């Protein structure tokens, strides 16, 4: 028998994850069964279990997919020469992901994960990891800006990070509830608040010599 190619394996894995995401988004983790996911995927039970042994494995895999996408956003922000520009890039990149309709199911699964993290340590680890990476990115950019005098020193970098994340999480919930949210406008507001932390260069305000 010919060996299954890597591309075929990746395609099947993606099909199974898409099926799991669809089922979890609509029925939550506890009400969804592996049989539901098998049926949705269109594959055999043996094929699905060949990739994922349990719902826990599927939940973990979906979290990893989201974290990989967010890691690319975080890394891109850190390449900015100007830390303020990096922070603004970060805000708008997350806003674009949040506004994408294709991510509706992923957002619902994410909310289910937040609830499940209260009782399941395995899921909590992934939820906390999903927060720690963007938090670390904001802290690094804020610290870089403060060290060069670009950003105000009288604010705590981690508090800024947590406030921005809280804004994002709140929008995730509102959108999942069906609220009509102007995500781009919210991102512009976050940018405006962030710009309020910029230290103005007073050396140029006294007129020319």
Explain what you see.
74% of the residues lie in helices and 0% in strands. By secondary structure, the protein is mainly α. It folds into two domains: 1-53, Homeodomain-like (Arc Repressor Mutant, subunit A, Orthogonal Bundle), CATH 1.10.10; 55-199, Orthogonal Bundle (Tetracycline Repressor, domain 2). The longest helix is centred in the middle third of the chain and has 27 residues, at 121-147. The model is unreliable at 202-209 (pLDDT under 50).
Give a concise summary.
Helices cover 74% and strands 0% of the residues. The protein has helices at residues 6-31, 34-41, 45-51, 55-78, 83-99, 104-116, 121-147, 157-176, 183-195. Helix 4 runs parallel beside helix 7 (121-147) and helix 6 (104-116) crosses helix 8 (157-176).
Features:
single chain; 209 residues; mainly alpha; Arc Repressor Mutant, subunit A; Tetracycline Repressor, domain 2; 2 domains
* Overall shape: elongated
Strand percentage:
under 5%
Report, as a whole number of angstroms, the end-to-end distance.
83 Å
| SSE succession | HHHHHHHHH
Number of helices: 9
CATH structural fold name of the largest domain: Tetracycline Repressor, domain 2
Mean pLDDT: 91
Structural class: mainly alpha
* Residue windows where pLDDT falls under 50 for at least 5 positions: 202-209
Largest sheet: none
In CATH terms, the superfamily of the largest domain is Tetracycline Repressor, domain 2
Q: What is the correct CATH architecture of the largest domain?
A: Orthogonal Bundle
CATH class of the largest domain: Mainly Alpha
Helical residue percent band: over 70%
For the secondary structure, the number of strands is 0
How many domains make up the coordinates? 2
Radius of gyration: 21 Å
């Amino acid at each position: 028998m010919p060996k299954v190619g890597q591309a075929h394996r990746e395609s099947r894995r993606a099909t199974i994850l898409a099926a799991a995401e669809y089922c979890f988004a609509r029925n939550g983790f506890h009400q969804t069964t592996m049989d539901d996911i098998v049926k949705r995927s269109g594959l055999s039970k043996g094929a699905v279990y060949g990739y994922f042994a349990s719902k826990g494995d599927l939940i973990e895999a979906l979290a990893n997919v989201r974290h990989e996408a967010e890691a690319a956003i975080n890394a891109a922000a850190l390449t900015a020469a100007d830390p303020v520009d990096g922070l603004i890039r970060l805000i708008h990149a997350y806003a674009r992901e949040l506004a994408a309709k294709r991510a509706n199911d992923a957002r619902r699964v994410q909310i289910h994960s937040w609830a499940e993290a209260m009782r399941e340590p395995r899921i909590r680890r992934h939820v906390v990891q999903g927060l720690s990476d963007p938090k670390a990115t904001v802290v690094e950019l804020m610290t870089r800006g403060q060290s060069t005098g670009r950003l105000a020193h009288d604010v705590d970098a981690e508090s800024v990070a947590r406030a921005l994340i809280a804004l994002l999480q709140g929008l995730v919930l509102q959108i999942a509830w069906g609220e009509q949210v102007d995500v781009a406008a919210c991102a512009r507001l976050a940018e405006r608040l962030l710009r309020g932390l910029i230290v103005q260069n007073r050396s140029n305000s006294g007129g020319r010599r």
